[in-house]
Amino acid sequence: MTLTTSTMSQALDRSRRATRRFYRLILLLIHALVGILLQFGLLLASPFVSIDRAEQAVTRWWQGRLCRVLGLQIKVVGEPAAPPVMVAANHVSWLDIPVLGGALPVHFLSKSEVRTWPLVGWMATMAGTIYIERGAHGSKGVSGSMIERLQAGRSVVFFPEGTTTDGTSVRRFLPRLFSAAVEADAAVQPVAIRYLHHDGPHPCAPFIDNEMIGTHLIKVLGERLIEVELTFCPPIRGATERRRIAELSRQAISGIVDRQPVRA
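Below the sequence we write its predicted structure tokens.
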């Protein structure tokens, strides 16, 4: 039986993906072990010295390195605002956490079930994530935690869409938690995240439709690389109405997400 060029090409592609998955999985396990050892070292040192700055630096390094292990190639556009700032970003994937965490010294706000996810949950907890329960009452106490961090000079990231999307558009922003920025008198910086592929969003990046985290990770590990564009929009300062801040943030991010990518 004669193999066609197309069949041979598909077989070669599958072989390359399998090799990448195996290699990166080994690197991922090593990197997770390094993270555990670093956290253990910080825990041992904590009774003797203040480790806040060291912990932030370690967490940022670990997440930045994780992006490289996963094959994420990140391009940063614009400048991050100096802390304290509330960062409002569109939400495409769990990959958003290491992408933002490697670029900024921040705390995250995330849904409570993320805490139980393998690797990702540990990574999120290590980054000082504030967990929120689903439903209208889930934000009770969360806003106070966000205000405390902002008033302490820290920055906080949250995803006001409330869920992930396929990256082609931006959903309505829920305004409730923007009140934390008003109470803390902190700026809000919209940040647009785009995973690029040819002339549109990368098909492997979105984490949607109740996909299992392990299945999605294996898919990501097989990609040669995933280009990520991280755009820091101008900060919103002085606004005192949370719905207005939410809409301005959404407009800024949507203006980036909706445009066609400029490829080198």
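Residues 5-257 form a domain with the Glycerol-3-phosphate (1)-acyltransferase fold (CATH 3.40.1130).
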